[in-house]
Amino acid sequence: MITDNQMNILLVNAAFEMVTGFSQEEVRGQNPRILQSGKQDALFYTHLWNTIKTKGAWQGEIWNKRKNGDIYPELLSISSVVNDLGEITHFLGVFSDIFREKVVEKELEELTITDHLTSIGNRNSFNESLNNLINVSKQNEYKHAVLFIDLDRFKQINESIGNDGGDLILTEVANRINRIVQRKDIFARYGGDEFLLTLNNIHHQKEAAYYAKEITKLLNKPFYINSDEIYITSSIGISFYPQDGISAERLIHKADKAMYFAKQNGRNQYAFYFEELESDSKRLLLLESELRKAIQKKEFTIYYQPKVSIEKQEIIGVEALVRWQNEKLGFVSPGEFIPYAEDAGLIIPLSEVIIEKVCLDIIDWRNKGILNLLVSINIASLHFQQDDFIERINSILMQYNCSPRQLELEVTERTIMNDTEGIVEKLIKLKNMGFKLSIDDFGTGYSSLSYLNRFPLNYLKIDGSFIKQITSLKDKQAIVDCIILLAHRLHIKVVAEGVETKEQVKLLKEMDCDIIQGYYYSRPIPSKELLDFFELWEIHQKERNVL
Question: Is 166 left (phi over 0), alpha (psi -120 to 50) or beta?
Fold first, then answer.
């Protein structure tokens, strides 16, 4: 656009006509203010023209109006044209329509603050919003709670139903929690299967506890993914402003520590932050570092617990149990490092190290004349669900020249109840290869005895929590009796684990239980002591026969 020094339009080009919708004939002699949108006030234009008068030019973004009334953003440059005397004779305006650039800019801004999968806030927006809330709260005595929500064992679920199924669950999790989030609260997906919720201006811990319980209830309801019924649980950690921190970073950190405490104490629950968790946090960091090193260096020892035929009083096999003694951490309980290995994605390499260690012991026993001892190995759910599980375990056995016929694979009932058809096919292949198959910790999951006839099982292990109470609680005794009876009808032998007393042995024998395992006969012992145990057992057996 070219105007005279009185701002009367003299000339516009074809691009002007296309962008604004005005023809040259319509605007000639008019003032450019016919394009004003009203989005800029008089002060804006005063500043614009003062800049032109002092500097000879102005450039910036401005909103103008098309002939049809639509407003649009443009990048505008206005320059004054002077004659030889330095007098302004004309003004030259050059602009470009930046509507598309603005749209892209807005979309990029949305991407920086919104989680693309769930459409709720993301990590960046949560941190910024929480810090803004804290800055405002410094002027008053408001208190806030930060809830760190982590889905339990989500990696295993994701691998079993696929990434698309996992994304559907994450989206539904966000939707369910959003139902109880108030407008003043801040809710975001922090990353992966982690969500954060800030409860604004609460007064008591019980208010935060109420929301944590509600979230737990919402997430305990089944998720329906591709006609499959999926159940998940969550662990929730809670920190408070200002007592636990006065920055978003500290509050999130402490809520995270509380969440891990909830996870370590059984999952599917919530926990509040307390100071002692910091020392536990340092231990967790050291645990992960040392566990990774131990797996690489195979620094584990295998202990074996004998399994005894209750009728013949013969040792019919042993169960392999892993132990870990670390230079920095000392003895680390399997109850601590195995669940951590599952959460940290280390359970598969750890399981394969255990299988290798067992194979080495079998070779050692073979050299010492023990040829056909059946060794049972616990197989983690995530390990068993891998598509190449059979190929990998077979590769290890071939490497050490071990036969599948010497191994019994123990899987939990939760494992075999996921993807039932696929599990049955895998179990049949393993049994045809020569492996013995056992369902471990029976009674603690959610399967039914009616399903057992679908699986090619050799053994069923009744969980020790039932055995512990069979001499004191009639209902536990009835359950164990029923399990044994029905298992035998399905031609499955029953193993009672956790047997500790003579009274338990007597009662299990009356119930026709097949095999007993527990401290009554032996604690888990290292391989080098196992041969001595066998010799002593044989001696005692001969003495019993003489008597």
Answer: alpha
